[in-house]
């Protein structure tokens, strides 16, 4: 399978990249390329120009700073997977990074690309919704911060205009009592989720959940933020009864469709099952 | 210097072929480049059934590098638009006016390189008029169904039956217990990691064609090319087919795909070597499939739990043409081995095949022509019967197995099973896995609401095609061949009509010859795949290489040894009958010190042979097997089912295989592991699904679910050894046994876990959503 | 379509060419550099037969543009053997443990495994299975690939592989 013809340019600086994008409305951004290049090979995308941001310096990092975990957009998934900081303090992200695509793809695929593609089947969107993350988007006017809840405008449509680039992801920094978990039911390694759920919660010293984020992967046209379930669980001790009530709310907002991964009924039931399991796993971690 | 070991039968010597593969020096089809070659790429139909109204190549012709196009109308001028199939049907090379399945070839684009060829494909505009699509074989066979083929009276291809219909009906009507189940084995695809391809090189001066191609049967291909193109002046002596290293075959590289024929035509028309390498989607969408059998099976037993009769009715979906690469004389291949490992006298089976708007094929998936379907049916039915009777499936099997002393055993449907010891294999599998303890654990778990299952499959394979009473290809009997030449220094080269695709022929054939002649296997070079040099043979598939070419190797080596005996008699001044063969030398009976090694005799064959004898030490042997071989085994699988997700975890899988005499245990273990994963894959993950418009879901490896190392279970293997009485070294073949035998073990385990809930059967693949659906239906799904 | 001058070191030898923007790295390796050990099996980053190391990291070269790798150091299966020409422990492991049948996935498996054991010198069976799960093998059923990697890891740790893996060729 062979990509169509296109021009290619590899800017050395961010302003240069932004100018190129501004001047070429038909251009596509190439980062890790592991979503874009297969699309090119199937000729599902036929851009005239690829702007390769892969050589931009200073966009690959993982650090805690100013109350945030900051991740540079060009950070590859395997760097997340292998980061001891993330492994020890951000188990939700760590779980997800291990389930994205396969280990070799993760060496090229970037966190920024995964989010900017805004594919509801991708894993990071739900993870970032659960975290209550912020996305830094940079245009010629400089960077701006977008709450993750406003980032997924529609299917494959992020809140990034053509002449902007996603440059950083910010996750609220870990504090004691935080716990998270990502459960993805997939048919095999490398598959998109049949259903996925991301949970991030905080429990107080007396075991009350005072904050929880809950979101679903590949169960709708955009990642699903389970707001009602989150509200129902906030302030509870996450007992079985609390969970039973809340996961039903989560299953209600899911918009699964019958497909080759399973029926609508099966997927809705999976939401209940894996949400329960993910919350329990997150709770164990929060109390650890 | 240490002496080079002989490494005959039973030695786990490392494979000789590995040296190149581990260093990136294998030579696969894509590695072959001929100076001046051009590339071919193919425009394919997006529709499963459509009339081609117009083909417009104007825009494509303007693309730099694009050299030309070939359509069905172009081929028709040379009588090449259609080609015959092995099943006496016909198949389009390129369509003249209608396409019959999605991804069917429509136009070939020739270009200077693969990038330009792909651009050309994207720029060809084809105007289609969609036609009604037939995807369901049951509907296809209803009166008044839309016809897939205009040249046929209906969608019914053939009816085949064997056994005693009336006697079977009578027993089933009055039997103490009868169980019945509808069992579907879906369409699957071999998906070898290397796709198919070729380089066709036509030499117009010498009227000579060299065809490098991914084929498991190069000699047959040469003959087919000669027959199909004979009217154009291609003559068999001027056709050379070369099959280089093959990146996995499993039956998918037996058929003659249209792409090969178009490449030959293109090379002739353009006068340049033409290279064609399929991409993965083309491979999955258009190349030969396997299975697609809808079986309705009934098994009868008496009050003592003895099987009395089997009846199976099958509807087979063959796609738009019957192009099954099945060389047997029976349209359903070896399906009549469906009576299984059990002793009963009465059976009847019948099958009807249907045309549908899907690609053709039928038997390509590491299986000897419908044996997987047969084994699945009997091993499922036996398990259902045992459960129905409320007894342990192992006990039921032990009671009904053919006994060791009954071999050779004439099966109810006419096969002569050569040898076996089924009780021993199952007992060993049970001991290895700790069967009785597992049953106890299962009861405890069930009491707690946990679902654990144990599944057995005690299969009998039928391989080594085959005896000429049962097989031929275009009338050519299914022998295979070996040609051995011993060099003056006592080293050897041997050539075969088969073609390894990973089975390790370069090693195992050398070991067979080493055993017979005492020449170290390391010093025996094995060659296959070049029709100019190798003796004629029918190729490698159906686990036939060891049963046929392996036998030829032993027989040919024995002929050489007999000539060596004459030379030894001459050198030792002894009578031939006084010479005794020992490992690698002849000695004079009673005087072991008076001896000549094979190396000395080889040298003498060129330097000091008896007067009147021909010089040299070589032989070629064509082995036409007197019977098929019947490898067997017993597998036990343990599963745990997650009631919340429907996910089946394979906790353990023990496989006992009996492939007769073991040539290289390391290679046999490897074949068993690989075969098991190819049994696991369709049981749990893989299938080709079509929607009502004939669109394939699963046209890439993103959706056609080939297992990774994470899904594939960790295999535990063991063996019994029951040599074949009719094979020169007692070997039976092993590559396909696990793929054939494993699927029912998985299904039996999953059903065993859920029988008490009321579940009787699950069709493969047992995907989580399907298992969960059954749990839900029977009130056992856990909604947390 | 733009073309670009690239220089890519392949197994220590710089290979320069003017290439079109869309040229896939796997084709550059196979056709421009003539190193045909790297194979192409699927087009969708599913099979991993095209895995090579870019600056030491395994990557699927069918989904990388040649221009993206300009200036990089590539290692392919042809560059895996030790500097003295002896086989890499993994190459020895794969042949001792029968970790290959047809050989088509083997170069990719080797390049993935080489990075795996470099990072994790004593991987568990589970870690190996997860580590090679981006590489498909259709022949072996993976049991012996796992053992091959264990063999190599043991050897590189200075441990006798036959004490770590049980395969017929090593049974005494």
From the helix content, strand content and strand pairing of chain B, which structural class follows?
alpha+beta
What overall geometry of chain B do the principal axes of the alpha carbons give?
globular
Q: What proportion of the residues of chain A is helical, as a percent range?
A: 25-40%
Strand content of chain A: 25-35%
Task: Give an overview in words.
The complex is a heterotrimer of chains A (288), B (784) and C (172). Chain A folds into three domains: 49 residues, Uridine Diphospho-n-acetylenolpyruvylglucosamine Reductase, domain 2; 111 residues, Uridine Diphospho-n-acetylenolpyruvylglucosamine Reductase, domain 3 (2-Layer Sandwich), CATH 3.30.465.10; 105 residues, CO dehydrogenase flavoprotein, C-terminal domain (Enolase-like, domain 1), CATH 3.30.390. Chain A is 33% helix and 26% strand. In chain A, helix 8 packs antiparallel against helix 9 and helix 9 crosses helix 10. Chain A is globular and about 60 Å long. Chain B is built from 19 helices and 32 strands. In chain B, helix 14 runs parallel beside helix 15. Chain C is an alpha+beta fold and 172 residues long. At the B-C interface, helix 1 and helix 17 of B face helix 2, helix 3, helix 4 and helix 5 of C.
Secondary structure blueprint with pairings:
The complex is a heterotrimer of chains A (288), B (784) and C (172).
Chain A: E1 7-9, H1 14-23, E2 27-30, H2 36-41, E3 49-52, E4 62-65, E5 68-72, H3 77-82, H4 84-89, H5 91-99, H6 111-116, H7 124-131, E6 134-139, E7 142-147, E8 152-154, E9 157-158, E10 165-172, E11 178-186, E12 193-203, E13 209-217, E14 224-225, H8 227-233, H9 240-253, H10 264-287
Parallel strand pairs in A: 1-3, 2-3
Antiparallel strand pairs in A: 4-5, 5-10, 6-7, 6-10, 8-9, 11-12, 12-13, 13-14
Helix pairs in contact in A: 8-9, 9-10
Chain B: H1 18-21, E1 38-44, E2 50-56, H2 58-61, E3 66-71, H3 72-76, E4 82-84, E5 90-92, E6 98-99, E7 105-111, H4 114-123, E8 125-130, H5 137-140, E9 156-163, H6 165-174, E10 177-189, E11 197-203, E12 208-213, H7 218-229, E13 239-242, H8 258-270, E14 274-277, H9 280-286, E15 289-301, E16 307-317, E17 346-354, H10 371-389, H11 393-400, E18 409-410, E19 416-417, H12 422-433, H13 435-447, E20 451-460, E21 480-486, E22 492-496, H14 505-517, E23 524-528, H15 545-572, E24 579-582, E25 585-588, E26 591-597, H16 598-607, E27 618-623, E28 632-641, E29 648-658, H17 665-684, E30 689-690, E31 696-697, E32 716-719, H18 737-754, H19 768-777
Parallel strand pairs in B: 1-14, 12-13, 16-17, 22-23, 29-32
Antiparallel strand pairs in B: 1-7, 2-6, 2-8, 3-7, 4-5, 9-17, 10-15, 11-12, 11-14, 15-16, 18-19, 20-28, 21-22, 21-27, 24-25, 25-26, 28-29, 30-31
Helix pairs in contact in B: 10-11, 10-18, 14-15, 15-16, 17-18
Chain C: E1 3-10, E2 13-20, H1 25-32, E3 51-54, E4 57-60, E5 73-75, H2 89-96, H3 106-119, H4 125-131, H5 143-156
Parallel strand pairs in C: 1-5
Antiparallel strand pairs in C: 1-2, 3-4, 3-5
């Amino acid at each position: 399978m062979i990509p169509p013809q296109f021009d290619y340019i590899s800017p050395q600086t961010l302003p240069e990249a932004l100018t190129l994008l501004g001047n070429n409305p038909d251009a596509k951004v190439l980062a890790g390329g592991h979503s874009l290049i297969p699309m090119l090979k199937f000729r599902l995308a036929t851009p005239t120009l690829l702007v390769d941001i892969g050589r931009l310096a200073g966009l690959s990092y993982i650090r805690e700073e100013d109350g945030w975990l900051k991740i540079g957009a060009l950070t590859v998934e395997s760097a997340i997977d292998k980061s001891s900081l993330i492994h020890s303090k951000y188990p939700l992200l760590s779980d997800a990074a291990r389930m994205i695509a396969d280990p070799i793809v993760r060496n090229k695929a970037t966190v920024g690309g995964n989010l900017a593609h805004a594919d509801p089947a991708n894993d990071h969107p739900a993870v970032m919704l659960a975290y209550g993350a912020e996305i830094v988007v940079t245009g010629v006017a400089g960077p701006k911060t977008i709450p993750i809840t406003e980032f997924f405008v529609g299917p494959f449509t992020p809140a990034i205009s053509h002449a902007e680039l996603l440059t950083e992801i910010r996750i609220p920094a870990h504090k004691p009592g935080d716990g998270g978990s990502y459960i993805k039911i997939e048919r095999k390694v490398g598959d998109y989720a049949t259903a996925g759920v991301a949970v991030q919660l905080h429990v107080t010293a007396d075991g009350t959940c005072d904050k929880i984020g809950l979101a679903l992967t590949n169960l709708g046209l955009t990642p699903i933020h389970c707001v009602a379930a989150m509200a129902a669980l906030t302030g509870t001790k996450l007992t079985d009864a609390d969970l039973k009530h809340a996961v039903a709310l989560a299953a209600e907002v899911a918009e699964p469709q019958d497909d080759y991964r399973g029926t609508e009924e099966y997927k809705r039931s999976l939401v209940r099952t894996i949400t329960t399991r993910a919350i329990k796993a997150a709770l164990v971690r929060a109390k650890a | 210097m240490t002496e080079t070991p002989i490494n005959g039968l039973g030695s786990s010597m490392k494979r000789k072929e590995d040296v190149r593969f581990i260093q990136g020096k294998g030579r696969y089809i894509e590695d072959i480049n001929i100076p001046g070659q051009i590339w071919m790429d193919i425009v394919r139909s997006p529709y499963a059934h459509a009339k081609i109204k117009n083909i417009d190549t104007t825009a494509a012709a303007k693309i730099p590098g694009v050299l030309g196009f070939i359509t069905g109308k172009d081929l028709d001028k040379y009588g090449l638009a259609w080609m015959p199939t092995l099943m006496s049907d016909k198949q389009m090379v390129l369509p003249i006016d209608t396409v019959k399945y999605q991804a069917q070839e429509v136009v070939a684009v020739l270009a200077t390189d693969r990038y330009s060829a792909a651009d050309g494909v994207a720029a060809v505009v084809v105007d289609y008029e969609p036609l009604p699509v037939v995807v369901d074989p049951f509907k296809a066979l209803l009166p008044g169904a839309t016809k897939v083929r205009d040249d046929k009276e209906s969608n019914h291809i053939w009816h085949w039956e064997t056994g005693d219909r009336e006697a079977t009906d009578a027993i089933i009507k009055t039997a103490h217990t009868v169980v019945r189940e509808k069992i579907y084995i879906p369409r699957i695809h071999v998906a070898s990691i290397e796709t198919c391809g070729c380089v066709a090189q036509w030499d117009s001066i010498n009227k000579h064609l060299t065809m490098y191609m991914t084929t498991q049967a190069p000699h047959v291909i040469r003959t087919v090319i000669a027959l199909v193109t004979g009217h154009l002046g291609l003559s068999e002596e001027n056709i050379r087919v070369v099959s280089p290293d093959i990146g996995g075959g499993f039956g998918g590289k037996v058929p003659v795909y249209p792409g090969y024929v178009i490449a030959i035509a293109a090379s002739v028309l353009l006068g340049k070597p033409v290279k064609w390498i399929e991409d993965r989607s083309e491979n999955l969408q258009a190349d030969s499939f396997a299975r697609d059998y809808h079986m309705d099976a009934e098994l009868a037993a008496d009050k003592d739990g003895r099987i009395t009769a089997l009846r199976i009715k099958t509807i087979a979906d063959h796609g738009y043409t019957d192009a099954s690469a099945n060389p047997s004389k029976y349209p359903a291949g070896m399906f009549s081995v469906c009576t299984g490992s059990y002793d009963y006298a009465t059976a009847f089976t019948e099958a009807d095949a249907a045309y549908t708007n899907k690609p053709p094929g039928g038997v390509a998936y590491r299986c000897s022509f419908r044996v997987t379907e047969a084994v699945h049916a009997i091993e499922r039915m036996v398990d259902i019967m045992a459960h129905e009777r409320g007894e342990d499936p192992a006990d039921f099997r032990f009671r009904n197995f053919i006994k060791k002393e009954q071999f050779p055993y004439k099966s109810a449907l006419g096969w002569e099973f050569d040898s076996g010891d089924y009780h021993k294999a199952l007992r060993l599998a049970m001991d290895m896995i700790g069967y009785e303890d597992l049953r106890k654990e299962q009861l405890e778990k069930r009491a707690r609401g946990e679902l654990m299952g144990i599944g057995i499959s005690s299969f009998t394979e039928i391989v080594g095609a085959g005896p000429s009473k049962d097989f031929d290809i275009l009338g050519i009997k299914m022998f295979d061949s070996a040609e051995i030449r011993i060099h003056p220094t006592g080293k050897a080269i041997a050539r075969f009509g088969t073609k390894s695709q990973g089975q390790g022929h370069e090693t195992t054939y050398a070991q067979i010859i080493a055993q017979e002649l005492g020449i170290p296997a390391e010093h025996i070079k094995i060659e296959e795949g070049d029709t100019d040099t190798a003796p004629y043979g029918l190729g490698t598939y159906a686990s036939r290489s060891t049963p046929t070419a392996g036998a030829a190797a032993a027989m040919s080596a024995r002929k050489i040894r007999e000539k060596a005996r004459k030379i030894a008699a001459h050198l030792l001044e002894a009578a031939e009958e006084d010479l005794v063969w020992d490992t690698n030398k002849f000695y004079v009976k009673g005087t072991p010190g008076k001896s000549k090694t094979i190396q000395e005799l080889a040298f003498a064959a060129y330097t000091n042979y008896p007067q009147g004898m021909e010089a040299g030490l070589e032989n070629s042997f064509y082995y036409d097997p007197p019977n098929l071989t019947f490898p067997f085994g017993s597998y036990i699988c343990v599963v745990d089912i997650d009631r919340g997700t429907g996910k089946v975890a394979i906790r353990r899988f023990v496989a006992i295989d009996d492939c007769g005499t073991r040539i290289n245990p390391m290679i046999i273990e490897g074949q068993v592991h690989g075969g098991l994963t190819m049994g696991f894959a369709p049981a749990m993950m893989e299938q080709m699904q079509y929607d009502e418009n004939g669109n394939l879901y699963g046209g890439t490896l993103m959706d056609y679910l080939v297992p990774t190392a994470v899904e594939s279970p960790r295999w535990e293997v063991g063996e019994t050894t029951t040599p074949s009485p009719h094979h020169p070294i007692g070997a039976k073949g092993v590559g396909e046994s696990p793929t054939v035998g494993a699927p029912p073990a998985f299904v039996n385990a999953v059903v065993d876990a859920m029988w008490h809930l009321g579940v009787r059967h699950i069709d493969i693949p047992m995907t989580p959503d399907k298992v969960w659906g059954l749990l839900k239906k029977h009130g056992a799904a856990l909604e947390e | 379509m733009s073309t670009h001058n690239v220089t890519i070191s392949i197994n220590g030898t710089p290979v320069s060419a003017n290439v079109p923007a869309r040229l896939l790295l796997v084709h550059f390796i196979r056709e421009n550099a003539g190193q045909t050990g790297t194979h192409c099996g699927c087009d969708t980053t599913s099979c991993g037969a095209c895995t090579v190391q870019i600056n030491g990291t395994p990557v699927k070269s069918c989904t990388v543009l040649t221009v993206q790798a300009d200036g990089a150091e590539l290692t392919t299966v042809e560059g895996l053997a030790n500097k003295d020409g002896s086989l890499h422990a993994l190459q020895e492991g794969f042949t001792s443990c029968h970790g290959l049948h047809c050989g088509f996935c083997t170069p990719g498996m080797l390049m993935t495994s080489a990075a795996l054991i470099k990072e994790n010198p004593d991987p568990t069976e589970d870690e190996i299975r997860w580590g090679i799960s981006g590489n498909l093998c259709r022949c072996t059923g993976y049991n012996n690939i796992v053992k091959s990697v264990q063999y190599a890891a043991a050897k590189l740790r200075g441990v006798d592989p036959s004490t770590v893996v049980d395969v017929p060729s090593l049974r005494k």
